[in-house]
Design a protein that fits this description.
InterPro entries: ArgE/DapE_CS (IPR001261), Pept_M20A (IPR047177), Peptidase_M20 (IPR002933), Peptidase_M20_dimer (IPR011650), TAT_signal (IPR006311). This protein has 516 residues and is of the alpha+beta class. It contains 17 helices and 17 strands. It is 34% helix and 21% strand. The strands form 4 sheets. Strands 1, 2, 3, 6, 7, 8, 15 and 16 form an 8-stranded mixed sheet that branches.
């Protein structure tokens, strides 16, 4: 890595530790307005700036988030109905004097929304990329209505509260506060609320192919980096901005057996054979691979934590000289982490069983059984083709057929070559105004935490910009505990209300660095 990495070396400010329930500017986010006084800086505004009218409800991130959550934008795999949600946000932007446009896709009511805040120069725009679609819910497993935005015990619940309507709310509310104060940005700021991020044919790739002039930018910020807490679950510990995503691919595992009447169980049952392979793979972990990006992340984590034993374990893992020593240390790191699932995922290629299907009638033992394995590889770590070979070797003795789920029209080798290219893609450059703005805002908003670049364990819509060499980063701008993190794509998805407010202050300060 070049010398630009120095921008991440944010040291702790020697102040008393405070949770996100305090902090500069946070309480003001719920205020109802103070005339000509900036809610964040306390500075007196000019008459023109003070007269800029933006509804208080739109500047309140909780109010705005609850409205977003009320729209059912579930995406079952082929896109979602996002029109009503987009129309609501379009009105929010237009009430603030910001032009906004709904972009229709070939799928009815599956739309993108683009708002553009004009800047004072021709500098390449800053693009804020947030998706409006959400994964489906298992309503019976929720303790509240997933589309109600219920607040309970200081947390706001709803599908998308974390991923990623909460981030959209923090971003939009922060920008609207600047607009209400008469701020002028030194470049255009584009806010894209896209569709089909969770699945579908008309996401950011389609939008870039058909409307690139509307989303062409110099830097992009989307979902990604986590804001982690100390073991008390609320005190900010590590603030990250992701500069790289893991490589996404799927494997299909199939077992064959004899089909017969269910009254005569057979020893070569396809379901039993596959289940044994699933159990074996379910308890197996791919090898640990540390890259330059993940080494920097874990070094920052060791610096940030108040847990001395955890810090020692991380340092031991980073200094390990053999793979066996690294594996042993990594196991200790995960066992002592307050975010064990996240940190295990950042250390290796992951595999998760997501869809299983077999059989068609209760009195028939089927001749085949299938399970899909969703995999995420670390760029610069283990190659997807190496992982595929490893899985095939492990399951061969059971006669399991392992197939790489390649896109239509591509052979396995062609798709492996494509995955190799993604695997070799360099992380986003951090010597940019946007990354420096994120680092500076983190230092101001979370003065006792450490800021660092990171790897995102999942994926984003950034591909069209990354393919064009445009740097893209990710943040979820609210401190989460592990229980909340697990609700991402799960049940009772939720975030802390005060964390959302402080995250909005973080976004406000990020945008402050782009004022003209």
């Amino acid at each position: 890595m070049d010398d630009s990495r120095d921008v991440t070396a944010v040291t702790r400010v020697p102040l008393g530790r405070r949770t996100f329930l305090g902090g500069v500017g946070v309480a003001a986010l719920g205020a109802t307005g103070l005339g000509g006084i900036s809610l964040f800086t306390g500075a007196t505004l000019s008459p023109a700036a003070a007269a800029t009218a933006v509804p208080e409800a739109d500047k309140d991130p909780l109010n705005l988030l609850q409205r977003m959550l009320s729209y059912d934008t579930q995406n079952y795999g082929k896109g979602a109905n996002t029109r009503a949600h987009a129309q609501m946000l379009k009105a929010v932007w237009e009430n603030a004097g910001v032009p906004a446009e709904i972009i229709d896709t070939p799928q009815p009511d599956n739309v993108h929304l683009i708002a553009r805040i004009p800047g004072s120069s021709s500098a390449a725009p800053l693009l804020m990329l947030g998706h409006s679609d959400v994964v489906p819910v298992e309503r019976e497993a929720w303790s509240v209505d997933p589309f109600s935005g219920t607040v309970r015990n200081g947390e706001v619940y709803g599908r998308g509260a974390l991923d990623m309507k909460g981030a959209n709310s923090a971003t939009i509310s922060a920008l609207l506060r600047h607009i209400s104060e008469g701020s002028r940005f030194e470049r255009d700021i584009i806010v894209l609320t896209d569709c089909d991020e969770e699945a579908g044919s008309f996401g950011s790739g389609w939008l870039a192919a058909n409307h690139w002039s509307k989303v062409n930018a110099g830097m992009v910020l989307t979902e990604g980096g986590w804001f982690l807490a100390q073991k008390d679950r609320t005190t900010p510990m590590l603030i990250t901005a992701t500069r790289q995503d893991k490589v996404y691919f799927n494997l299909d595992l199939t077992a064959d057996g004899t089909a017969t009447h269910s009254s005569k169980p057979n020893p070569d049952s396809a379901i039993v054979t596959l289940s044994r392979a699933v159990a074996e793979l379910g308890s197996w972990l791919a090898p640990v691979h540390l890259t330059e990006v993940t080494r920097e992340y874990f070094a920052a984590l060791a610096k940030a934590t108040d847990d001395a034993e955890f810090a020692r374990a991380v340092k031991l893992m980073l200094s390990a000289r053999s793979q066996n020593a690294r594996e042993r240390a990594a196991s200790v790191v995960v066992s002592k982490s307050s975010y064990p699932w996240l940190h295990r995922a950042l250390l290796r290629t992951t595999h998760a069983f997501v869809i299983e299907d077999s059989g068609y009638k209760e009195n028939v033992i089927p001749s085949s059984a299938h399970v899909r394995l969703n995999c995420r590889g670390i760029p610069g770590g283990q190659k997807p083709r190496e992982f595929l070979a490893q899985v095939r070797e492990m399951t061969a003795r059971r006669g399991i057929q392992v197939t790489l789920a390649a896109p239509a029209g591509k052979t396995e080798e062609q798709y492996l070559d494509e995955l190799d290219e993604r695997w070799a893609t360099a992380p986003a450059d951090i010597d940019t105004p946007l990354f420096r703005a994120l680092a500076g805002a983190a230092s101001e908003t979370y003065p006792n935490a450490v800021f660092a670049p990171a790897l995102f364990e999942a994926g984003t819509s950034l591909a069209p910009w990354r393919e064009r060499g445009i740097p893209g980063y990710g943040v979820y701008p609210y401190v989460l505990d592990n229980d909340q993190l697990i609700t991402m794509h799960g049940n009772d998805e939720r975030i802390y209300v005060e964390a959302l407010r402080q995250g909005t202050a973080f976004m406000y300060r990020t945008f402050s660095r782009f004022l003209s």
